[in-house]
Design goal:
469 residues; alpha+beta; Uridine Diphospho-n-acetylenolpyruvylglucosamine Reductase, domain 3; Alpha-Beta Plaits; six-stranded antiparallel β-sheet; 31% helix; globular; binds flavin-adenine dinucleotide
């Protein structure tokens, strides 16, 4: 079999044979499908990544099969990219060097449900984990809005926060990732378990520094949530009310999202259910806090358009409220018009409605605000995932500069390197890569600095400090 990627000189037929009895996928059309994620959200990444393909897909179904796959890859010096549901946004699971794609979705067992934690194999869908928790009266502390197709391994290796983060923090906050088990890429792959702070080196490292076999995540007591959509005349009022709900002592919350009215014109499923041309506050609150929530919203000049239990929502044929939050907000727009894109922008801490109001007129008509409220390191924070109407890279740079100049840091969503997003800004994760993946086979193209340090020992790499990104 010749190399589909055109980037490797490995005999992929012999490689596939050596992988037996592990399931492999050799059809080019299926390999190409599994070489993509949601990088096309970014026109810049789309141009750079759309022609990057792997050469073969392996689908191990147990740690033993995974060890066999990794040992064969190690023997052939084959580039490896791990893949769960393939919902990452920055080409995280795109095989830029070609090579082997390891699809984890056959490793999908919930291993243990305990009091306050769940341990599941890397390929388990987040939604399946949430379902498995119901009988014990628990739910995930947070989950991505892609939970129906995203795996827990992909969430921990590629995600950061989600539905529940306004109550329980970001994934990286202490206690949320209890531990994880990872396998090294060596002649005889080793299994290592990492707790707390050590697990954070593998978290959001895009599968560069270890193959996650299973993850133990925090769970919280289950509550009956209602999905609410509330409308306001101004964006500032929606944001101010969101902040008030986030701070309210008598209202719990699992989701708080504000959406500019112009974005809402791309929500056809809500037509007739919400007041047109209004700014939204999208939220999930416990059923018992409904009256307090309504009183707070009306006190802020808002109107409660929808307040539904899950059963009522299904009967009304409406999507879940989190289909309008996180990167799903952008997706609703992209479904209608592929010239839209987005950005990831931090906001002043503590959240400042006046600063948001002052920034709006400076942004121009091609950047439409959408904020998520979360609790990070114990503090209430917001971040903007604006819908941006892409014209040129130069105009995008201008929009970024407007944000930064006004005190809103940009965590660029249009870069394919792991150091670019702001969470892996020192060399420590590459020292871990050296320990777990001495030949540098795992997704190495995604690190801007790996080639510079690959020849060093882990301790030498670690001593380098900040990457300067
Ligand atoms: C519409 C939309 C909404 C989203 N909402 C959210 C959100 O609310 N919160 C959020 O954090 N993200 C969100 N994301 C990003 C993404 O969906 C999540 O991060 C998701 O959890 C990724 O899971 P996945 O299984 O699809 O991972 P993949 O895309 O398959 O992989 C993600 C990264 O993890 C690596 N990886 C996968 N499995 C392993 C493993 N076993 N070992 C080591 N590395 C591995 C891959 O190589 C890749 O680098 C969203 C994306 C989209 C398109």
């Amino acid at each position: 079999m010749t190399s589909l990627s055109g980037k490797t000189d490995i005999d992929w037929t012999a490689f596939a044979t050596a992988l037996a009895p592990v399931e492999v996928i050799t059809e080019p059309v299926l390999i190409k499908k599994r070489s993509r994620d949601f990088f096309w959200y970014s026109p810049i990444l789309n141009r750079e990544l759309k022609r990057c393909f792997g050469d073969l897909v392996a689908r191990p179904k147990s740690p033993e099969e995974m060890a066999h796959v990794l040992a064969v890859a190690y023997a052939h010096d084959a580039p490896i990219v791990m893949r769960g549901g393939g919902t990452g946004n920055y080409g995280q699971s795109v095989p830029m060097d070609g090579g082997l794609i390891i699809d984890t979705t056959a490793m999908d067992a919930v291993i243990e449900v305990g009091d306050g934690f769940v341990r599941a194999e890397a390929g388990t869908l987040m939604a399946d984990i949430n379902t498995s928790l119901q009988a014990s009266g628990q739910e995930m502390a947070m989950f991505p809005s892609t939970q129906d197709i995203a795996t827990v391994g992909g969430f921990v290796a590629g995600g950061s926060a989600g539905i529940g983060s306004i109550a329980n923090g970001a994934l990286r906050d202490p206690g949320n990732i209890v531990s994880l088990t990872a396998m090294s890429v060596e002649a005889q792959p080793q299994i290592r378990t990492f707790d707390g702070p050590e697990a954070l080196q593998i978290h959001h490292a895009w599968g560069l520094n270890g193959v996650i076999l299973d993850v133990t995540l925090r769970t919280v007591p289950r509550r009956d949530w209602v999905g609410c959509i509330v409308t306001f005349d101004t964006y500032e009022a929606a944001y101010r009310a969101g902040l008030a709900v986030a701070q309210a002592p008598d209202i719990a919350r699992k989701l708080l999202t504000t959406v500019d009215a112009r974005i809402c014109t791309y929500f056809p499923k809500l037509k007739g259910h919400i007041r047109p041309e209004k700014h939204l506050l999208v939220s999930m609150i416990p059923i018992e806090d409904r009256a307090a929530f309504r009183a707070l919203i009306e006190g802020h000049g808002g109107h409660v358009d929808l307040m539904l239990t899950d059963t009522e929502r299904q009967a009304a044929g409406l999507p879940h409220v989190y289909d309008f939050s996180y990167n799903h907000t952008t997706l609703q727009v992209l479904k209608a018009d592929r010239s839209a894109t987005y950005q990831q922008v931090g906001c002043p801490i503590p959240p400042d409605p006046d600063a948001i109001a002052a920034l709006r007129p400076k942004l121009g008509d091609d950047a439409w605000m959408h904020h998520e409220f979360a609790r990070v390191g114990g503090e209430i924070v917001t971040f903007d995932l604006p819908v941006i109407w892409f014209s040129t890279p130069e105009r995008l740079a201008e929009i970024n500069a407007t944000y930064t100049a006004n005190g809103f840091p940009v965590y660029d969503a249009h870069t394919w390197n792991v150091e670019g997003g702001g969470l892996k800004a020192d060399y420590v994760h590459l020292a871990w890569k050296k320990r777990m993946d001495p030949k540098g086979l795992l997704n190495a193209a995604k690190s801007r600095f790996w080639a510079d340090v690959a020849h060093m020992t882990p301790d030498e790499i670690e001593a380098l400090g900040q990457t300067g990104e």
